[in-house]
Amino acid sequence: MNRRRNDIRELATRIVALQAKAGALGLFTNDRELIECQKCGLLEDVIVTGQLITCRSSAFGRDTRLRFEELSQNRFRCSACGSIIHQG
Ligand SMILES: [Zn+2]
């Protein structure tokens, strides 16, 4: 019983570490909703490789190489037009 609990704790620690690593690689870890800028229409998308990109609805899936800048929890700045987006 005790051993099982330790295994689960160890697994949880590994998942957290993996999520951090995935985030650092630009992969989307599904820990929030995708962002869409209401002002200029820049939107986030996750491509088949798991990479988080931003694109325009007119060119879906084509990375603009812009990224929403995380200012604080649930607050992001659009790097295309500079407007602040409140998420969640
Ligand atoms: Zn914008």
What does this structure look like?
The chain has about 90 residues and is an alpha+beta fold. It has two domains: about 1-25; about 30-88, no CATH class. It has one helix and five strands, in the order αβββββ. It has one helix at about 1-25; strands at about 45, 50-55, 70, 75, 85. Strands 3-4-5 form a three-stranded antiparallel beta sheet, with no helix packed on it. It has a two-stranded antiparallel sheet with strand order 1-2. The radius of gyration is 16 Å and the shape is elongated. Zinc ion (ZN) binds near residues 80 and 81.
Main traits of this protein?
alpha+beta, elongated, three-stranded antiparallel beta sheet, 1 helix, binds zinc ion, two-stranded antiparallel sheet, 88 residues, 5 strands, 2 domains
